[in-house]
Amino acid sequence: MCGIIGYVGRRPATPILIEGLRRLEYRGYDSTGIALVKRGNIAVTKSAGRLSVMEQMADMKAPQTTGIGHTRWATHGAPTDVNAHPHLDSTGRIAVIHNGQFDNDRALRTYLERQGIKCKSETDTEVLAQLINKFYQGDLEQAVRQALSEVSGAYAIAVVCSEEPDVVVAARKGGPLLIGVGKGEHLVASDPAAVLAHTSQVVYMSDGEMARITSDHVSMTTLDAIPVTREVEEVEWSLDEIELGGYEHFMLKEIMEQPGALENCLRGRIHAKDGSVHLGGLVDCTRELTRAKRFILTGCGTAWHAALVGEYLFEELIRTPTETEYASELRYRNPVIDDGTVVIAVSQSGETADTLAALVEAKSRGALTLGVVNAVGSSIARETDAGVFLHVGPEIGVASTKAFTAQVAVLAMMACYLGRRKHLSPSSAMQFIASLARIPQQVSEILGNADEARAVAQKYIEFENWLYLGRGYNYPVALEGALKLKEISYIHAEGLPAAEMKHGPIALIHEGMPVVVIATAGTQYDRILNNIAQVRARGGSVIAIATEGDREIARMAEHVLYVPDTIESLQPLLTVIPLQLIAYHAAVLRGCNVDKPRNLAKSVTVE
Ligand code: G6P
Q1: Which of 16, 281, 339, 344 could form a disulfide with 370 if both were Cys (CB 3.0 to 4.6 A apart)?
Q2: 206: phi then psi, degrees, rounded to nearest 5
Q3: Is the model's pLDDT at 606 over the cut of 70?
């Protein structure tokens, strides 16, 4: 949600900023801009629309070696040229880019107006630029510190000043920010992807910290000016992982990557020989976890769907009460959480504002907190007491795919790890782990038949409403399939526990309406066949996801997409794959921008 890049060094800044913005575009893409600094002047180029629009206007040969750049996901004010970042103060000597939102910007705006300072844009960011200028007395860092003491809300910012052309000041409170450490140059960015082409050495800033960055030096302090020291860390991702690598879209690349991603996620952690699981991140708190009275799994969007699969897995394998909560609800309820509760935050980015806030709330009530996170160094990864990383490499497509399967795989490993310390027998664990070990190969088999999903998408592309039905472990998959379709193709889709259909949504079914039913072998099979019959009786067209070898289903459904057989509790890892493919192809066939769907952002760092 908004991307930030800054550069200070010896090379011309423009190409570096533009390249960084290209890597960050998935964080928000309704307007972009850059500000280049030289003594006595700040040159701003900005525009509504995609990066390519602004890029045409930018002078790639501009000599300035200090600058900041921003790609926006609008919160305060529509995505217009004026509201695009960077924002200058009225004198034009301060430029600010900002990710997040200030809560008291209206009061500050009125205060500034009373002093005769009028803002040009509707953004809260410009208010900050004006404040910094007001406090500026020859020390940018000090002016930023003073201005930030006046604002409340969440932010990650980068600021430059024409009177200190070799300095970028950065600060964070509630939004991600890191410093890339190069040779004779530094970068500041909201995401490692933006600096990776220049350096893999980064310093992750913590909440409530500021940095004064020059080409040769970085000094870090808290917002209250107490010096802090942070380690330089190595980013594990390679440049290849953030390239399209011949694919048309990141989403397709990430769908196709899933066998390898799952291998990486499981590697060294599961042992099929004896059914054991080794999770280094949980070793120190295993005793506490086995004694937990209750688990609460929380997250947003796709991560919440993975958490819901986790709830089923935890209850079955660990036999400890488990609930799944939307983080946005958990943070504002008055939940019963005590030191017997373990709260597990599931998040690809590790930066989702609601998930982070729910976690902080749970921690303050005495819960042990764990993270199931992909982005190492992210806020959630650092805030939690312990956790397990996904290790699937960067996910760039806004619609989450490989993170979902890895989140489910991690939760499955956690369930087995803790289950074995409670009620799970060695033979059940062995069967479970042997099945889990086969999943990457089975995903690969499904991907080998990807054309069938395309044919289904093609046949029903004109329909504006789809239903997705599942039971048991496949109910969260129905929700996820529907979310994928609506996110990127803008087709309305609803996911339901199949039995709920008759309590209302069945009224929607009309002749030919596509109804995707996950009807794999298992305890729910006969019941789901009844649901299929109910859909058929109302004229709906059934697209079944079924277990290989099931011929009966072919007589009842218009289309069958087969997945290999596995134990019921691991089926979501397979049944979601054809649904990801259907959504992808539907979006492509409709001419939608798959990786940058309208109104969405990859990492939602505001409420
Ligand atoms: C956004 C993304 C979704 C994602 C959700 C949670 O809405 O568009 O794809 O599932 O945030 O993100 P997280 O990074 O916490 O998993």
Answers
A1: 344
A2: -95, 165
A3: no
- Structural domains in the chain, CATH included, are 3-235 (3.60.20.10), 245-448 (3.40.50.10490), 450-595 (3.40.50.10490)
- Position in ligand 1 atom list of the atom nearest CA 352: 15
Atom nearest to 302 CA in ligand 1: 10
CA of 400 to the centre of ligand 1 (A): 7
pLDDT of residue 196: 94
Q: How far apart are CA 109 and CA 115, in angstroms?
A: 10
Instruction: Give me the half-sphere count of Cα atoms (radius 13 Å) on the Cβ side of residue 412.
Output: 32
Distance 604 CA to ligand 1 centre (A): 7
Q: What is the mean pLDDT of residues 128-145?
A: 97
Cα of 398 vs centre of ligand 1, distance in Å, is: 8
Residue 296 has pLDDT above 80, yes or no: yes
Nearest CA to ligand 1 atom 3: 301
Q: Which residues touch 140 (CB under 8 Å, ≥6 apart)? A: 94, 132, 159, 160, 161, 163, 164, 167, 169, 212
- Count Cβ atoms below 10 Å from residue 363 Cβ, excluding itself: 16
133-150 mean pLDDT: 97
Nearest CA residue ID for atom 7, ligand 1: 301
Atom of ligand 1 nearest to the CA of 380: 15
From atom 2 of ligand 1, which residue's Cα is the shortest distance away? 602
The tally of CA atoms less than 13 A away on the side-chain side of residue 420 is: 21
Q: What b-and-e string marks burial along 76-97, b requiring 16 or more CB atoms within 10 Å of the CB?
A: bbeeeeebbbbbbbbeebbbbb
Strand partners for 201: 234
Q: Which of 476, 514, 525 is nearest to 497 (CA)?
A: 476
Characterize 247-269 residue by residue with b for buried, 16 or more Cβ atoms within 10 angstroms of its Cβ, and e for exposed: eebbbbbbbbbbbebbbbbbeeb
pLDDT at 505 over 90: no
* Protein residue closest via CA to atom 15 of ligand 1: 347
Task: Specify the pLDDT at position 518.
Answer: 98
User: Is pTM, for the whole model, over 0.90?
Assistant: no
* Tokens 């979501």 -> residue: 572
CA–CA gap between residue 208 and residue 360 (Å, rounded)? 15
Q: Enumerate residues lining ligand 1, CB below 6 A.
A: 299-303, 347-349, 352, 355, 398-400, 600, 602-604
In sequence order, the 6+-apart residues with CB closer than 8 A to the CB of 68 are: 4, 5, 6, 7, 17, 34, 35, 86, 95, 97, 158, 159, 160, 168, 188
- Contact (Cβ atoms closer than 8 angstroms) between residue 1 and residue 61: no
Give me ligand 1 centre to Cα 601, in Å: 8
> Interior CA angle at 576 toward 571 and 582, to 5°?
145
Q: Report pLDDT for 316.
A: 97
Q: In angstroms, rounded to a whole number, what is the distance separating the alpha carbons of residues 220 and 216?
A: 14
Per 3-state DSSP, the chain is made up of helix, strand and coil in percentages (nearest 5) of 40, 25, 35
Per the CB < 8 A criterion, the answer to whether 586 and 491 are in contact is: yes
The two structure tokens encoding residue 301: 């969007």
